[in-house]
Amino acid sequence: MTEPIIPPAPEVLEAPAGPYVYDYAASPQRQVVMPKTVPLPSYRTYLAEVKAAAEADEAKWKKMQADYETAKAKAEAEGKDAPKPPVRPVPRKDDNDLKTPWPQEAKDADLLLLQEVLGAKVEEIFEQAGELTCQLEKGAIHEALTLCREHEGLRYEMLADQSATHYPAANDFAYSVVYHLTSISRRKRLRLRILVPEGFVPESACSVYPSANWMEREIFDMLGISFANHPDMTRILCPDDWEGHALRKDYPVVGWGQRDVAFREDRGGMIERIALQKAGQLGINLKQPKAD
Amino acid sequence: MFKNEEMEINLGPQHPSTHGVLRVKLRLDGETITHCKPVIGYLHRGVEKICENQTFFQGQVWTDRMDYCSAVANNLGWAEANEKLFGITVPRRAQYIRTLLNEFNRLASHLIWLATHALDIGAMTVFLYAFREREDILDMNEAFCGSRLTTTAFRIGGLREDMPPGFEKMARKFLAKFPTCLEEYENLLSENRIWKKRTVGVAMLSAEDAIALGVTGPVLRAAGVPYDIRKAFPYAAYGEMDFEVPTQTAADTYARYLVRMAEMRQSARIIQQCLDGMPEGPVMAKIPKILKPEVNEVYHATEAPKGEIGYYLVGEKGSTNPYRFHVRAPGFINLQSLPKMAEGGLIADIVAAIGTLDIVLGEIDR
Amino acid sequence: MGVMQPSAFEQILITTKVEKVMNWSRATSVWPVTFGLACCAIEMMAAGASRFDFDRFGAGIFRATPRQADLMIIAGTVTYKMAPVIKTLYDQMPEPKWVIAMGSCATAGGPFDSYHTIQGVDKIIPVDVFIPGCPPRPESLIYGFMKLQDKIMTSSLADRYKDIFEEVG
């Protein structure tokens, strides 16, 4: 008796996740490379890094000395010549015009004033490359912006720029939103920064600085951070039905294939018109499905 | 019967005026605009995303194509932002040549503005005149950079090459004839009755509104605020130059025309000073071939012909690409004020309002 | 001998095909639609202005509406948001119509290999002449336009609709 032949079940291909398909394997240089570090400038991190580097350097020097001692003892025991004593390596000096701007302690009066008035809501203040940075608690941004505009000693009249950055490698936040303020009367610039986790809705700056309107729409379009109390929180650059947020680090440069539109090459629709007319005379519905 | 009945009109995106692919949704009561909403994004090319995936040196090519009327000004902002990020000091001769090229570029950009603005309002002759002088400036661009429009003029740390032989002679020849050309334009327009009817009192924007909306450049200066980044936060060689910041108080389209015409005179003055006081020396700083930054973020703003162009760069330690590349485009911010200018005015005047903002959609949509 | 002497009739008249006259008149008065998208539009304007003077080729009358135009010069980057607009404008142009893709963006996407850029306008509408360059100089545009004139001069009505007649039968 023979076993009944069971036809093998047809292999079900998994449907692609989105409506668009793009062959990333065909172009390896276009694959997404996720960042591994969190390049968030900070004086506190810098100090910690410098301290860690100094300790590592010291430990290395200690180890070299210890190695030398053992080698010396061994050489003496064997009656050989003593090895050369170690020399502490000096950092190499480059002969070029680069002078890396490291973060420095905040000495500017504006930053100190902000810290004095806002108190614990200021997370960090520092200066780097001649620019003033003040990192705030994420809920206090509206208060800080109002203070910067209204306070007699600050008077930052203009919001020059607002932008955001995606940090996928960070643990406790996903985006940083930066506000660049300009004081026309005092000729000063100031950067405010908040760190925002995924899904958090920061307060909009529109009520304080109306110029934030389009900039926040751009941030929403490009990174997907929406702002509370914004008059018109819609996409601005990409069309309304666009999928994905382009400036996130997990978004490929070539997109998800939306750009590969194909229209039928038919001058003035002549072929289609004639074909439809002929088909209509015969009673056939020839209407081809349109390219989606 | 027709009272309280509003009509909706769509202006663009195919050439609302000679300024690119801008679309404006308008609601009209008769001929008066009651509601105005600009819709942008028809030239969104993803410059920021592309530049984040290129090295620091390569990014310049895309800055050319943002504001294509003033590529050199974009290059200057880009180069200086990178130099701030890495802490590079640029040699003095390179600073002077940069200033020189940037001012020539300002002339070219303002000439394009004059030509297209006048063409929109109906003065055809100025278009032909202004393009005649602009071709001379493009010849100089070509002599220096090898390209007319998309210059890629600078490098991080200075310039690729010194001035070509004969460049100074060309520049001086141009400067000698340029004041008479300016007088020609002014003869055609300044006292022209039609021009005045179309511009005086049209598209007003007060200083308070302009500052609140973040408007910079000639539009802000025509409202009486003497804010020019070349003076307020001097960069390149502008600290050593002697020039004035022209302002007007009328805050209308005609005042902006006067401000830009005066700015062209000041630009010619700066070019003259650059040529006369050109220092000797190298044009490139000593920097390594591959630049890798430390963790740092910079926002560097320079005065482009349209207003404040700012580059926001974030450097990642050990990476050759910028972690974040953001451009604060002057046109993007300035265009926000279009509803304020146009609402309450006539439908015919919105073309003047778009023209006077001097927008370029390449930098607005990026 | 085999040589035919021109008849008296032929000596006083120039004979030609109607089609050739039509082509000649079409090629020497091509009206482009003003359709600047990006950087190349500035060079297109420069081609129309003082030094280069596009009018010499009968193509200086830039029409603001596609319904009065024969030629569409796609001068600049075509984006995803703009593509349907271009298709609509092209469909609104009356036959016969021609398209020049000016610059590398309109030809193949150019330097903008990104999510929102269509990689060449030929994905949307048929193109007759491609002009390389980023942006092409006005001379390049003029050369490309002269190529288009050649194409118009050698085209025939039968060729234009041959595909259609063969396909539909």
Question: What features would you describe in this structure?
Answer:
The complex is a heterotrimer of chains A (292), B (366) and C (169). Chain A has 292 residues and is an alpha+beta fold. Helices cover 28% and strands 14% of the residues of chain A. Chain A has a domain of 118 residues: 2-Layer Sandwich (Beta Polymerase, domain 2). In chain B, the strands form three sheets. A three-stranded antiparallel sheet of chain B has the order 1-2-3. A three-stranded antiparallel sheet of chain B has the order 6-7-8. In chain B, helix 3 packs antiparallel against helix 4, helix 5 runs antiparallel to helix 6 and helix 6 runs antiparallel to helix 11. The model of chain B has no long low-confidence stretch (mean pLDDT 87). Chain C has a four-stranded parallel sheet. In chain C, helix 5 links the parallel strand 3 and strand 4. The longest helix of chain C has 17 residues. Chain C starts with 7 loop residues before the first helix and ends with a helix. Classes of the chains: A alpha+beta (292), B alpha+beta (366), C alpha/beta (169). The interface between A and B is large, with 52 and 56 residues.
Distance between the termini of chain A: 53 Å
Largest interface: A-B, 52 and 56 residues
Fraction in beta strands of chain A: 5-15%
Q: Helix amount of chain C, in percent?
A: 40-55%
Major sheet strand order of chain C:
1-2-3-4
CATH level 1 class label of the domain at 106-223 in chain A? Alpha Beta
Classify the fold: give the CATH topology of the domain at 106-223 in chain A.
Beta Polymerase, domain 2
Order of helices and strands of chain A: HEHEEHEEEHH
What ranges of chain A have pLDDT less than 50 throughout 5 or more consecutive residues?
A: 12-21
Provide the gyration radius of chain A in Å. Answer: 31 Å
SS-based class of chain A: alpha+beta
Roughly how many Å is the radius of gyration of chain C?
19 Å
Biggest sheet: strand arrangement of chain A: 1-2-3-6-5-4
Shape of chain A: flat
Main sheet summary of chain A: 6 strands, mixed
Mean pLDDT of chain C: 82
Oligomer: heterotrimer
| Most strands sheet of chain C | 4 strands, parallel
Concise description?
The complex is a heterotrimer of chains A (292), B (366) and C (169). Chain A has 5 helices and 6 strands, in the order αβαββαβββαα.
